[in-house]
């Protein structure tokens, strides 16, 4: 079963798949990660995926409106959150300074996901505007194709600070690499994440089973460990 998954799920989904496989050993799952908007464009052209897990519930809803999903298979699975993240090598103390860190001369580049097709990029831009800092920092913004690439830019030092998904900042793979400050939830629109089973799935039974697992207490508990909320 092939899953088109939003890049913020890169680590959480690995854990979800591992746990699911313990219960459904006969199902082999192949996740692909990218921006939700780009996956949406591919799926309107019948890209060969069975399940779509989007960082924006609107994309599965649009697919439903076009008759491209199995009837009744659309669902919401979590809300995402954004943080300012800086590596330990950075001199910028985002934990102490919060959004004011972005004004510091030492911050020459601020990585965000491309708002044109990445929900986390739209949330980042909205937060900068809401917090009254967008005009002061807009010339520092550099774009990642998706939120995972954006995080890599901050990890590598290509950007001194990244506005990234909490799920990536909390991942064990990022443990000890940096520090972060959670952007207040009221500073950006709700990041309601959702999914759907594609109409042309080759394995509807497996897709339904994974959907049920994701929405069950065990699946939700894994998502919560990565900073997702119901």
Helix/strand layout:
Layout: E1 2-6, H1 10-23, E2 30-34, H2 36-44, E3 51-54, H3 58-65, E4 75-80, E5 82-87, H4 94-97, E6 110-113, H5 119-130, H6 134-137, E7 141-144, H7 147-156, E8 161-165, H8 166-169, E9 178-182, E10 191-197, H9 204-215, H10 217-225
Parallel strand pairs: 1-2, 1-3, 6-7, 6-8
Antiparallel strand pairs: 3-10, 4-10, 5-8, 5-9
Helix pairs in contact: 1-10
Oligomer description:
single chain
Uncertain residue segments: none
Structural class: alpha/beta
C-alpha end-to-end distance:
25 Å
Output mean pLDDT: 96
Please characterize this protein's 3D structure.
The chain is globular and about 55 Å long. With 230 residues, the chain is of the alpha/beta class. The chain has helices spanning 10-23, 36-44, 58-65, 94-97, 119-130, 134-137, 147-156, 166-169, 204-215, 217-225; strands at residues 2-6, 30-34, 51-54, 75-80, 82-87, 110-113, 141-144, 161-165, 178-182, 191-197. The mean pLDDT is 96. Helix 1 (10-23) runs antiparallel to helix 10. Helix 1 (10-23) links the parallel strand 1 (2-6) and strand 2 (30-34).
Quick recap of the structure?
The chain is 37% helix and 22% strand.
Protein traits:
five-stranded mixed sheet, alpha/beta, 230 residues
């Amino acid at each position: 079963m092939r899953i088109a998954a939003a890049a913020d799920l890169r680590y959480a989904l690995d854990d979800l798949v591992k746990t699911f496989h313990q219960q459904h050993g006969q199902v082999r799952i192949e996740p692909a990660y990218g921006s939700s908007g780009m996956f949406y464009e591919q799926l309107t052209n019948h890209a060969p995926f069975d399940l779509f897990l989007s960082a924006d519930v609107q994309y599965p809803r649009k697919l439903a409106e076009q008759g491209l999903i199995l009837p009744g298979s659309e669902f919401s699975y979590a809300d995402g959150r954004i943080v300012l993240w800086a590596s330990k090598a950075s001199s910028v103390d985002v934990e102490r300074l919060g959004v004011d860190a972005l004004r510091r001369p030492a911050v020459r580049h601020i990585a965000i996901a491309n708002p044109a097709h990445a929900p986390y990029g739209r949330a980042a831009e909205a937060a900068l505007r809401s917090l009254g800092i967008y005009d002061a920092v807009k010339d520092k913004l550099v774009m990642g194709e998706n939120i995972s690439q954006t995080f890599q830019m901050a990890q590598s030092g290509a950007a001194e600070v990244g506005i990234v998904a909490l799920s990536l900042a909390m991942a064990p793979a990022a443990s000890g690499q940096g520090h972060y400050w959670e952007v207040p939830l009221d500073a950006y629109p709700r990041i309601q994440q959702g999914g759907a089973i594609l109409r042309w799935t080759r394995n509807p039974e497996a897709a339904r089973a994974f959907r049920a697992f994701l929405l069950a207490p065990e699946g939700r508990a894994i998502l919560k460990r990565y900073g997702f909320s119901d």
